[in-house]
Amino acid sequence: MNPTLVLLQSATMFAMAGAVLALSTYVKLWTGLLSFATVTFGAIGAFGSIWLYNETSLGLFGSIIGAAVASGLFGLLVGRVFLKLSSHWLALATVALVLITRVFVVNLVDYTGGSAGEVVAYTITMPQMAIMLALVCGLLYLLKRSQFGVAADTTREDPAVAAALGVPVARVKIIAFGLSGAIGAVGGAMQASQLSYIDPDTFYINLSVTIIASVVLGGAYHWFGSVIGAAVFTGMPVYISQYITEGQSIINGALLLVIILFLPGGLIDPLRWRRLRERRLRKRQPPDAVDGTRDPAPDPALDQAGATR
Amino acid sequence: MLLLEQLINGICTGAIYALFAVGFGIVFSTMQILNLAQGVYATYGAMITYFVLDESGLPFWLAAILGVIGAGLVAVLVDQVAFEPLRRRGVQLLGAVIASIGMWIALREVLSIATEATPVGFPPGTAPRGQISIGPIDVLQTQVLAVVCAVVVISAVYFLLHRTNVGSAIRAVGFDKRSAQITGISPQAMIIGAAMLSGAVTGLAGILMAGGQSFNFNLGDALLLQGFAAVVIGGMGDVRGSAIGGLFIGVVQTLSASYISASYQDAITFGLVLVVLLWRPTGLLGSADFQRA
Amino acid sequence: MRIDSTPVRPGPRRNRRLVAVALTVLAMTASGCAKDGGAGADGDTVRIGMIVAETGPIAGAGKTFANGARIAAAQVNADDLMDNGKKIELVAKEGSEDPAKSASVAAQLAADKSIVGITCCILSTVAGAAKPIAEKQKVPLMLWGATDVDLADPPYVFRTVTMPQPANEKVSQTVAEQTGIKSVAYGVMTDNSGIVSQAEAFVSGMNDAGVQDLGTVETLSTTTNFTSAATDLIQKDSDAIVVAGTQSNAVGLIAALHDKGYDGQVITGETISGSGVFKSQPDALASVPFPVYFLSDQPANDAAKAFVEAYTKEYGEAPDGYAAQGYNAIYTLAMGLKAAGDDTTRAGLSKALDGMTELKDTIYGDVTFDGGQLNATSAVQIVNYTAPDGDIAAWKPAN
Fold it and tell me: Pairing state of beta strands C157-159 and C183-189?
């Protein structure tokens, strides 16, 4: 096969794995929770599925589903335990969770290979990855239109109002964590397959930062944003590093900053689009592309992810 | 005797964490920003000190002051470039976290390039090294320096924030920008002042951390993790809380590594962080007014 | 003293090599584009993929690996070491020593059928990621840095990195014999399997020398302050302390031991070699013995001498151990290609490398291959940094 095609294929597969991980973070953000815990779920998914694949006869998909179920249950537990933490404190608690995860991966040598890491016994092909990503996207598409979607939107906009309207805020948040756990596990298995060799540092702070950056870059208000964000933030560097050898991280950092300053809703921002549409309907001057910066009205949704001010 | 010595080691490490946590807490309590770029200030403090020492014949204390000022200026830069536009738009947690991640990644890479990713250390004969005896106990000069700096600086910050008009103004900005403005305070000046103070204190923590060992462009990342464990334990809104949280983390880490297991040291520390978070979400000493944030 | 264990081998080669080096340097200066080996106009040109780490967290080491490899390619070509005008062309791709990026790059190189072999990998994780790709695509992979046990796996995965384990065993034994230490304690970074395995080699060397083991103090890759570990180690009151850790970890612990006034013998591994390390902690590191396989001040033979001269000329500093590793990876691949004769395909190279049992006159002297792994234990020298300028010199016990 043509080397450029191989590079494209590899970048695409990393982007798909990154997209599933980003979606796992998105589900929590949907209910207004900023969490780094996706990496922990990814670790459970990767190490768990490899262990199941080696030790049982569940096969590739059985192993991944098994790990996803375990991670989903763990997600429910984490969601329940962290329930009363608000905004910043929840974010900090999930960072602590990521740090603790690494300690367990290092020390559970029999299940994870310890600090030596382990070879990923299975390979997920590109079509299989595409199907897995499509399934996760399909799930989120359905959820968006479901009762849960409405409840999640409302919870993010204003938990107090949501509760007053009869939305079971606590349950919505716990379910979001459970879903995030299951989806994160699938993403972790995909990432592992793509790396073919994983160790305790594979699922650590760096990855969680990349994932959150992907979600925000793509847009935190629609699941499709996470997919786009992951494509840009995990797929692109594979390409860019071929041409720019020094200072690539400076570009990444600056890119993040520019996005958050000038496109606060990310690349996929339904709210901004709606505003643009409405303005156009009102026959005003067509606004320019980076109009968001001059918009005096704060993004209500972004605000909500923040604080109970 | 070993216990006593390790306790002292823990307190001395904790003093550095305490300084870092205080710097972290200033940004958080005045601006409600969870700033992941905070560790970078520590690295810049240490690196600027190193470059000054390496390039010029200036004495250590002068180089350290330059490092502290430099770290403060980096903090102001981060604040004005990344946070100010967001503040103007009223964007909260998520935007600021992402902006700080962006600054973190970019500023760290600058240092990586500047040092070619190799470890550096303060040139011999510049920074204090070696031991001095205090009674029957030998302690490192760097440790004494860390404790003295922490006590003096943290007391000064506490005094500044809680006992002076400027401090009241800074805290008032943290409470409510508009009402602060009504009372005739320039919020802009106060925010820049707070950023400067936060960066300077954090930079000092970085310099103290770097003294006596080799370090590279990653120095602040480890401090960031320990530092926020400290603020979670102590509560972010209160200088005293952050300081005690830092000391506590230092002692717990040292004693758990020495007496329980180094392998599980991080699990013990951060497990404790989780327990405290769940038990008292605003920290052990978290003040009631802080719940608002 | 058995420091210079590899005899110098004078011979007809010498002049030829010197001429070659002169030509190489000329060619490099003249063309300026010879950086990646510069294929000649006549004769076969064989393309070798090279995954470099000239950016990223370990760019410091990564640059010297790549530079060493470039010198090797230039010398092989200028000197016609593969005979009949056969030449190497290096195709360098940046992988930043990041597993994900490097895996992508490896896949890309493996897919390019004109690439006959690939060389890469400083970190074992990255090697672990590249290895299955090479095996699946049946392309010979030469690992130049990753030292985790059992990474070499013929017929496709070979490793020319000189392993730290036998070197550590030797440094333990030699120092124990020459200083007469009776007891030893270990400071080991335990969350890195490569380091743990290196520590085991120290232990086995000390046991063989009959030194009493007083126990181990653990450090972690996340440890930021080594005073506490140093306190625990000094408490054991041993004649010697062995420090096993990655570069910053080992230097940190040695500095802390120094500051805490430990006056016994400190011993460590080759992780503390590398540019800038001595300068960062001169007082603590001076006189700490560690093993190296390659020393630019004392080249083992003419090949090493020629390498040092060419490298110094091109890059303005003497090559360190990492540069030697990079050089040797390409040199070994070239010798494999030479042995493969006309069959300069992946299969041919793989077969030739698999059949290789020894190489003479490498920059490490004569080396052997066992299960795809290079062995150069005879080249191990025990050295230490010397104050004030950080030159590396043969270690001698203090009086």
Answer: unpaired
Residues of A in contact with B99 (CB under 8 A): 256-257, 260-261
pTM, to two decimals: 0.84
Nearest chain A Cα distance for residue B244, angstroms: 18
Q: Which residue of B has its CA nearest to A208?
A: B101
Q: Which residues of C touch B212 (CB under 8 A)?
A: 255-256, 259
CB of C101 closer than 8 Å to CB of C70: no
User: Going from the N-terminus, what domains does chain A have, and what CATH number goes with each?
Assistant: 3-269 (1.10.3470)
DSSP string across A215-277:
HHHH-TTSHHHHHHHHIIIIIHHHHHHHH--S-HHHHHHHHHHHHHHH-TT-SS-HHHHHHHH
- The per-residue pLDDT string of chain C (399 residues; one tens digit each, 9 = 90 and over) reads 333 333 333 344 444 444 444 444 444 444 433 333 333 334 589 999 999 988 777 888 888 999 999 999 999 999 999 988 889 999 998 888 888 788 888 988 998 889 999 999 998 888 988 998 899 899 999 999 888 877 889 999 999 999 999 999 999 999 999 999 999 999 999 888 889 989 999 999 999 999 999 999 999 988 888 999 999 999 999 999 999 998 889 999 999 999 999 999 999 999 888 777 888 888 899 889 999 999 888 888 999 999 999 999 999 988 988 999 999 999 999 999 999 988 889 999 999 999 999 999 999 999 999 999 999 988 999 999 988 888 888 898 875
**C-alpha to C-alpha distances, B1 to A119, B4, B251, C364, nearest whole angstrom:** 46, 5, 16, 49
Residues whose CB is less than 8 angstroms from the CB of residue B142 and which lie 6 or more positions away in sequence, other chains included? B127, B128, B129, B208, B211, B212, C259
Interface check A106 vs C, CB under 8 A: yes
Largest CA distance in chain C: 67
Q: How far is CA C190 from CA A118, C223, C266, in A?
A: 17, 11, 19
Which of C104, C133, C149 is most worth mutating to test chain A (most A CB atoms within 10 A of its CB)? C104
Residues of B with Cβ-Cβ distance to C229 under 8 angstroms: 257, 262
Taking an 8 Å cut-off on Cβ atoms, the answer to whether C57 and B129 are in contact is no
